[in-house]
Design brief:
Structural class: alpha+beta
Shape: elongated
Number of helices: 5
Order of helices and strands: HHHEHEEEEEH
Largest sheet: 6 strands, mixed
Distance between the termini: 89 Å
Strand content: 5-15%
């Protein structure tokens, strides 16, 4: 009799196949519900870290501009003819002169990128092109040099060499002028590489040198503005001009002019 009772207890402790499948199904359902929420929470953390990086870039830029009475000079085609020119770019200058550490130039949301920014052991050179790929791009058309200044009221160009970088306090609206932003080298293949510049795409020039990248949940980008505040912007590609000239007499009402050019509209 005791052996029979023991056998009954053993049988009751065993899962049937159906019960096991039910448990597995419940676990799968819970995972499907919880994993997206977990991934979303992780991305929010990465986004917050990225915004903090950009705030530090904004502070470093402010300190640099006070030390040298100007922001870093940098034109639209800067560095592409010779990667050695990157020794004059913010990524190298800020690191060389101790304005901020190297890890500030990288965003944890950057994944599956072919060309990754790594702090090289040597200075930029014609063969050391990795300096092209910090994860944040500099506004080369409104801060690095005055793109609108290429055009007079008559629409004629002036000498590129005469264009000057932004002098603090001379911009029309520091709260709307982009300083640095999440960047990509192309929009057709954003994973090709990040980029040292964010630019405008114009029919009159050779094309943009870099784009704002909506890398956070594939819908938003982090941007720091000249006044030092940073924010997460949904659909940042709308800031990119796809045609027309952002010159001194046209397109003052466009988002591109407002956010890229130092003479952009207030607000």
């Amino acid at each position: 009799m005791s052996n029979l009772l023991s056998q009954v207890r053993v049988n009751r402790m065993r899962f049937t196949l159906i019960e096991l499948l039910v448990v597995i199904a419940i676990i799968a359902i819970l995972a499907a519900i919880l994993l997206p929420a977990l991934n979303s929470a992780r991305e929010r953390g990465r986004t917050a870290s990225c915004i903090n990086n950009l705030k530090q870039l904004g502070l470093a830029s402010s300190n640099y501009s006070m030390d040298y009475t100007t922001f870093v000079p940098m034109g639209g085609s800067f560095g592409f003819g010779d990667a050695g020119n990157m020794k004059y770019a913010p990524a190298y200058l800020y690191l060389k002169h101790g304005y901020l550490p190297g890890n500030v130039w990288t965003c944890d949301s950057v994944t599956e990128v072919t060309n990754q920014f790594l702090i090289p052991n040597t200075a930029p050179s014609s063969t050391n092109w990795l300096w092209w790929y910090p994860h944040y791009g500099y506004n080369v058309v409104g801060v690095g040099h005055d793109w609108s200044g290429l055009y007079s009221t008559a629409g004629t160009t002036t000498n590129y060499n005469e264009l000057s970088p932004l002098i603090p306090g001379t911009e029309k609206s520091a709260s709307s002028l982009i300083l640095f932003a999440d960047s990509a080298r192309t929009t057709t293949n954003p994973n090709y590489g990040t980029m040292f510049a964010v630019d405008v795409s114009l029919t009159s020039l050779t094309g943009s040198r870099g784009y704002i990248r909506d890398r956070h949940n594939n819908k938003s980008a982090n941007i720091v503005f000249v006044d030092g505040h940073a924010e997460n912007v949904v659909d940042p590609i709308r800031y990119q001009e796809t045609g027309g000239n952002l010159n001194s007499t046209k397109h003052f009402d466009t988002l591109g002019h407002k956010h890229y050019c130092r003479g952009g509209a207030e607000g």
